[in-house]
Design a protein that fits this description.
9 strands; alpha/beta; three-stranded antiparallel sheet; binds 3-hydroxy-5-(hydroxymethyl)-2-methylisonicotinaldehyde
Length: 271
């Protein structure tokens, strides 16, 4: 008999996207693709398909805590990825749980709005995100639109991207990755800033509508690679290649912004 290996346990705390490109379902697929064991707490049930988000029914701080506390009592959680956290109350509860359990690796994807323009977080909760959760984050992964709203800064070029990343580190995050996939131009450049300085990861822009879930998937992939002992820079680089491969081999499902492929060839992890 082959001796069973214990995979690192990665917890995603995020919304449910029933179309399974983004949110906890997309995260669980990504976590599985990277040879980790995914567990999840749902913060909001969203109503959506690949065309549109029609609404959301948010969980409370209490119902999120009652999902997470038993998991912490039973599993050794190597890394956490947070996605859609709909209210200041949920954000404070999640921050208190992370702090109490001293989880070492925390990737915060500051989800604010869907691609179709639906607000996934209360207006007042954006401050709680930066004030309470960023100080616990190993890495924060906003796209350009999210970084602008969080910092109040304009981001028109790489230099301004770096200024915004500096502002996020000042809010207490240990590192920030601002993704440029949603910006204009032929290059999709992401900027990582950590204590060692800034690195830019450039890739040729792939013109595709099948990008639903790329933000969630990127943050989950990085959480898994960190849990498996890779450095932050190596994790970001591999996760970005994985997203590229996932967009290029997207299954072409749905009539709107379809999901990427969460299991692209070449990223199999041997346990
Ligand atoms: O991609 C942002 C996002 C994150 N999480 C959930 C979502 C969406 C976008 O629709 O539904 C649950």
């Amino acid at each position: 008999m082959v001796k069973p290996l214990r995979p690192p346990v990665v917890l995603t705390i995020a919304g449910l996207d029933p179309s399974a490109g983004a949110g906890i379902l997309g995260d669980i697929k990504t976590i599985s693709a990277f040879g980790c064991y995914g567990i999840a707490a749902v913060t909001s049930v969203t109503f959506q398909n690949t065309l549109q988000v029609f609404g959301a029914l948010d969980q409370t701080g209490e119902t999120v805590r009652r999902q997470i506390a038993p998991l912490f009592d039973d599993f050794e959680v190597s890394a956490i990825k947070t996605g859609m956290l709909p209210s200041a109350e949920v954000i404070r509860e999640v921050a208190a749980l992370i702090e109490a359990r001293a989880v070492p690796l925390v990737v915060v994807d500051p989800v604010l709005r869907s691609t179709s323009g639906f607000d996934l977080i209360d207006e007042g909760a954006v401050d709680a995100l930066s004030g309470v959760l960023f100080p616990l984050a190993t890495l924060v992964t906003p796209n350009v639109a999210e970084a602008k709203r969080i910092t109040g800064l304009d981001i028109r070029d790489q230099r301004e991207m770096e200024r915004a990343a500096e502002a996020i580190l000042k809010m207490g995050a240990r590192a920030a990755l601002i993704t440029g996939g949603d910006a204009n131009g032929d290059l999709s450049a992401d900027l990582l800033l950590d204590a060692q300085g800034a690195v830019v990861y450039s890739a040729k822009r792939i013109r595709s509508k099948h990008t639903h879930g790329t933000g969630c998937t990127l943050a989950s992939a990085i959480a898994c690679l960190l849990a498996r002992g890779r450095s932050l820079r190596e994790s970001v680089s591999i996760a970005k290649q994985y997203i590229n491969a996932g967009i290029l081999s997207a299954p072409g499902l749905g009539h709107g912004n379809g999901p990427l492929n969460h299991f692209p060839a070449g990223f199999e992890i041997e346990n």
